[in-house]
Write a structure and sequence with these properties.
Order of helices and strands: HEEEEEEEEEEEE
Low-confidence stretches: none
Number of helices: 1
Shape: elongated
Radius of gyration: 21 Å
Structural class: mainly beta
Oligomer: single chain
Strand content: over 45%
Length: 167
Amino acid sequence: MAIVVPTPNTTITSAWGKSVADAINALQLPRELAYAQITAGKTIANTTETAADLVVAAPAVTFDGTTAVLVEVFSPAVVPAAVAGSGLVHIWLYQDGASIGRLALVTNPAGSSMYVPVHATRRLTPAAGSHTFSFAATQGGGNGTVAAGPGGVGNYMPAYIRITRIA
């Protein structure tokens, strides 16, 4: 961003002051671009990445192709099946309906219940245009759960996806 410096004895007009204020305000980061949440858990039954169970999708966002963003996903508890060594839940990041990679993996090393909070992020610069991000999950060795709730006494907090501008 070019910074305009007035010459000596120049009166700064309100229009100039406003343009400087607007430029400074545009640099305040992070700025949330999209957010979506669920308040009920999802059972994870699918086993293949290309057909993963949708957990939550963010609304579409139009990107400029040069601005980096942080895509963040959260669940207060991911619960793989109670199968020692093979009870697992993969968390996938999707862009425009296709997986762009695994964000997290929760594997149960024992044959008992296991609850793991997941907070995963991915920094990227989406191509120019409108894109939709979501997170989905698959299981291995028996159905898993991505937990979520409405919050409040005795309840899980919501699971969510959030996109923020970082540059």
